[in-house]
UniProtKB/TrEMBL annotation:
Transmembrane among keywords: no
Protein name in the entry: Amidophosphoribosyltransferase
Enzyme class, spelled out: transferase
PROSITE patterns: GATASE_TYPE_2
Entry's family note: In the C-terminal section; belongs to the purine/pyrimidine phosphoribosyltransferase family.
Pathway the protein acts in: Purine metabolism; IMP biosynthesis via de novo pathway; N(1)-(5-phospho-D-ribosyl)glycinamide from 5-phospho-alpha-D-ribose 1-diphosphate: step 1/2
Native source organism of the sequence: Siminovitchia sediminis
Listed GO MF terms: amidophosphoribosyltransferase activity
Keywords from the named record: 4Fe-4S, Glutamine amidotransferase, Glycosyltransferase, Iron, Iron-sulfur, Magnesium, Metal-binding, Purine biosynthesis, Transferase
Amino acid sequence: MFGIWGHPKAASMTYYGLHSLQHRGQEGAGIVVTDGERLKGIKGEGLVNDVFDEKKLDSLKGFGAIGHVRYGGKSGIENIQPLLFHSSSGSLALSHTGNLINANDLRHQLEMQGSIFQTNTDTEVLAHLIKRSGYLATKDKVKNALSMVKGAYALIMLTENELIIAQDPNGLRPLSIGKVGDAYCVASETNAYDLIGAEYIRDVEPGELIIINNEGIHEDRFSLSGSHAMCTMEYIYFSRPDSDINGVNVHTARKNLGKQLALEANVEGDVVTGVPDSSISAAIGYAEQAGIPYELGLIKNRYVGRTFIKPTQELREQGVKMKLSPVRKVVEGKRVIMVDDSIVRGTTSKRIVRMLKEAGATEVHVCISSPPMTNPCFYGIDVSTHEELIAANHSVEEMREIIGADSLTFLSVEGMLKAIGQKGLGENCGQCMACFTGKYPTEIYPDTPLPYEKEMK
Ligand code: SF4
């Protein structure tokens, strides 16, 4: 998500912001702008570049804008964000990252009271709650709505006259604010600021509500019980290495995970390689710590998207084949230590091990820079259902056999915390680790929906 307020080329800046956040979602993109009188939006399926061209951006005139790239979820253009609603009391656009765990309940209640929904998203529930609130001031309407929702939500909203930013009481998804000239901006990841020449100011705190308008920035809270539980997978896999989350650089965090993994693993090898792109930093850290050369043993075809968010199994399998190639001269005749960030179903790992062996590797030792993933995520990262998670149903030795590796090592939970936890941020050093430990930072309802019904790597 990206948003900006007070810039004459708000739509173009948002376009560039979304560009640097493209890794967060490739299934759809949208931008909504305000010129102070009305909101106008364009959205479509595919990459940011597929959805927008110069003509479309020129047609989005305004000084405030919000944008979104879509990651998984139910297909259909109506589900692509920002969602835009018009009413006689004014328009509202919403961009949301995360997953509202009580959305089913709230939606049912709203439907019983006569609400009609246009989309399948949990985000629309929020729009209804905001619009139905009897309060007059935006701040109070939003506070009232947020008091009813539970789960993960980093939010950027836009009205004709305001940019509204909110972070859930656990701060599960990253969100920060920056400044470019006199304009304020807000982004899911700090790397978006580099591309547009903006300066990072600070992260949005758990439970915080920020409203930006022509009078300036107004900082407030909607929840006093904010405690940090940042998604650990943001550091491990999801975010870009050049982003910082809560002041920690993602590349550095991954390198530390790799170093810690090398300390815990008892593996001999001739060469260390990482599965591109998200595991390269961890592999460099591993190699540095173990004193074994790091080499590019696998090459990624840049023009294929992330495989695990392709919507169907068939597309996903094709994606893996098209995506990675082994570098024969690097791995031939070698004992290869292959560092990867996680194992979800095991299908990707199995294929890569086979690929390395077919390219001549004498041994393939798989080292994972996170603990076994044994629980589903309800907060917006698709780690599949319990049944589909290989680590939920098999021992490490069984998994090793399934993926065909000569050895398989996972990082310990303690090691992971040591590598990326931040003292002073409270319980679990400010991290959510629920997919590894089963300890969720929020309550989970019996009918809490999994965010997405789709495939995973
Ligand atoms: S359960 Fe796992 S993937 Fe989900 S928010 Fe927590 S750490 Fe992230």
